[in-house]
Amino acid sequence: GKNEYDLLIIGGGSGGLACAKEAAQFGRKVAVLDYVEPSPQGTKWGLGGTCVNVGCIPKKLMHQAALLGNALKDAQHYGWNIAQPVHHTWSVMAQAVQNYVKSLNWGHRVQLQDKKVKYFNMKGSFSDPHTIRGLTKAGKETIVTAENIVIATGGRPKYPTHIAGALEYGITSDDLFWLKESPGKTLLAYYPFVLHLYEIIVHISLTDASPDVSLECAGFLTGIGLDTTVMMRSIPLRGFDQVSQMASLVTEHMESYGTKFLKRCFPTKVEKLESNRLQVTWKNTDLGTEQTDSFDTVMWAVGK
């Protein structure tokens, strides 16, 4: 009846890893279970959670790529002899970003080992209040017991399954940062949790759980030279400060740099054409009309 661990954490993201390392410093016997279910498009990643793998870290690196591109365009006015036009290669950037993220995955594993925290690459489920059934990708089962168990699984982006073709042809932010080739012309659609339908279309499919992330991604996609459009059914940055007009100033700034906005519109279906492009149909609530356009990528931002 003796428990194998003092503390067991299910989830190897920011919260789970911090909890495990702090507990280990108090001399407790600690273990972490972490497992990433592949996205519907098959994307998966290593230890570290959303921020490390499909959030803050790759997003900021891609923003840096966009900022460098703008700096190169400005450099000629300061005497630098840089050939124009400046061209960006997505695959080179993506490989560098993904290599860096993998180095962080390894670093987290080393940190756990240094602090004597046991790491299990398994999906955990409760058998009883002190027993976890761990299952590996190969289907091997391991039973782990602990006096205390912490659930730190975070969340994953959802798909708007009521829209025909959304699941079959769309991606989310879980996929965007791991694309090996450029998403090309992308559509980004955003829904804020389950409260309002608020979509963003970017000429590169992109999805995330909040409007700020959607606009951030639209910003770096535009910055690296991609045709990017944001479609929203409601107001920009819903849930953020509207009184100070900051939300509208953000979108106005983005428009001045080339991001397109389709306001008060929402998608109704996605179809794959013979050319492999994705035809998106949407409704304009102001005009009461239905419109279509084709994209290379459609990314959903539906919440978690």
**Helicity range of the residues?**
25-40%
Tally of discrete structural domains? 2
- Taking pLDDT < 50 over at least 5 consecutive residues as the criterion, the unreliable ranges are 192-210
SS summary, helix count: 8
Estimated structural class = alpha/beta
- Helices and strands, in order, run as EHEHHHEEEEHHEHEHEEEEE
> What is the fold named in CATH at topology level of the largest domain?
FAD/NAD(P)-binding domain
Radius of gyration over all CA atoms, rounded: 22 Å
Terminal residue distance: 38 Å
Anisotropy-based shape:
globular
> What is the name of the CATH superfamily of the largest domain?
FAD/NAD(P)-binding domain
> Under the CATH scheme, which architecture of the largest domain would be assigned?
3-Layer(bba) Sandwich
State which percent range the strand residues make up.
Answer: 25-35%
| Strand order of the biggest β-sheet | 3-2-1-6-5-4
GO biological process, one term: cell redox homeostasis
InterPro entries: FAD/NAD-bd_sf (IPR036188), FAD/NAD-binding_dom (IPR023753), GSHR/TRXR-like (IPR046952), Pyr_OxRdtase_I_AS (IPR012999)
GO molecular function: flavin adenine dinucleotide binding; glutathione-disulfide reductase (NADPH) activity
Cofactor: FAD
